């Protein structure tokens, strides 16, 4: 069988939140990401699906949420993405710590990991997040959104995800099949001291790292946990070649599913983490102008006829605007 086209890295990460307004306020106002799509969970249309990203919704920048208010608080454990890390420009962590103090955000002391400085924090639902200082190249594909934070410190897409695995070896082998290269190991800090963290790198400029960490810590899905991590398979052909490679490893990927802004294939990797393969198109600006992203509730075609019923079942939310926030201060 031919080798699959290597993935360039992470496409998006989807998480579970509680209160939708609180989720919007934190990810838009506090962290300064743009709401590029306000939609619904296509498998549960009574629930919002929020997409936060850079100014243009560039692949490798979108953190998405299902605000399932009735679910309990989750617990990070084996078979989950335990940390989601974002890139920020070198020298910006002082700004972020001051901002977190101002907004009452829980964060921990900085740590060094693989030669980079990492600031761990939690979102209002307890989701573990990290900001990692990197040198952002002049030709970086991300486009910072600057309504709430200056360009010089703005989040520039994903840095990495950390996978907690009871038996890391089959997952490491799968990552190699997907086109990741093992680039280093070091002793883990924080959650599982003494264990070894292994880093894998893809060939793309954004969201290129996956860290694998052994743990038998039990977990449960709920508020503050990651639902799935999606990896870029830019074209349908790339996706099909990766799907075939995953299937050849003994896993059970779905058929392609049309998610309106990209096309997806899902499977659980050996340790239980839900992986998605996502195409890069047609993109978040395929159904509304770039300068109007996130302004209205967008329903994929098959749901449009049910708009009145769907809107009636969703909580009213207000997207933060800089001029409104300033007027309230």
TrEMBL record:
Annotated region described as Disordered, given as residue ranges: 182-202
An MF annotation (GO) of this entry: dioxygenase activity
One Pfam family linked to the record: Glyoxalase
Domain VOC positions: 9-134, 157-280
Superkingdom of the organism of origin: Archaea
Keywords: Dioxygenase, Oxidoreductase
CDD domains per UniProt: PcpA_C_like, PcpA_N_like
Classification via Gene3D superfamilies: 2,3-Dihydroxybiphenyl 1,2-Dioxygenase, domain 1
Full protein name: Ring-cleaving dioxygenase
């Amino acid at each position: 069988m031919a080798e699959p086209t290597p993935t360039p890295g992470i496409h998006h990460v989807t998480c579970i939140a509680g209160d939708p307004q609180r989720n919007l306020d934190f990810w838009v106002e506090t962290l300064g990401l743009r709401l590029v799509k306000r939609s619904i969970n296509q498998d549960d249309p009574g629930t919002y699906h929020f997409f936060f990203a850079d100014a243009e919704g560039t692949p490798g920048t979108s953190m998405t949420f299902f605000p399932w208010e009735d679910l309990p608080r989750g617990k990070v454990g084996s078979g989950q993405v335990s940390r989601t890390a974002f890139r920020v420009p070198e020298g910006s962590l002082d700004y972020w710590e001051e901002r977190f103090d101002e907004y009452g955000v829980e964060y921990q002391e900085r740590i060094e990991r693989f030669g980079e400085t990492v600031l761990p924090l939690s979102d209002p639902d307890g989701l573990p997040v990290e900001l990692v200082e990197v040198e952002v190249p002049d030709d970086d594909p991300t486009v910072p959104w600057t309504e709430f934070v200056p360009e010089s410190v703005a989040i520039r897409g994903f840095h990495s995800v950390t996978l907690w695995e009871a038996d890391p070896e089959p997952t490491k082998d799968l990552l190699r099949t997907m086109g990741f290269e093992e680039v280093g190991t070091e002793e883990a800090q924080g959650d599982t001291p003494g264990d070894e963290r292994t880093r894998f790198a893809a060939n793309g400029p954004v969201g290129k790292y996956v860290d694998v960490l052994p743990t038998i810590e039990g977990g449960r899905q709920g508020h503050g946990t990651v639902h799935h991590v999606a990896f870029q398979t830019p074209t349908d052909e790339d996706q099909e070649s990766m799907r075939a490679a995953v299937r050849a490893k003994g896993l059970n990927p779905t058929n392609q599913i049309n998610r309106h802004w990209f096309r997806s294939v899902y499977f659980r990797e050996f340790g239980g983490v839900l992986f998605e393969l996502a195409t890069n198109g047609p993109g978040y600006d395929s159904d509304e102008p770039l300068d109007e992203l996130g302004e209205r509730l967008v329903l994929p075609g098959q749901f449009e006829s049910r708009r009145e019923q769907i809107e009636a079942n969703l909580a009213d939310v207000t997207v933060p605007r800089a001029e409104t926030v300033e007027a309230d201060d």
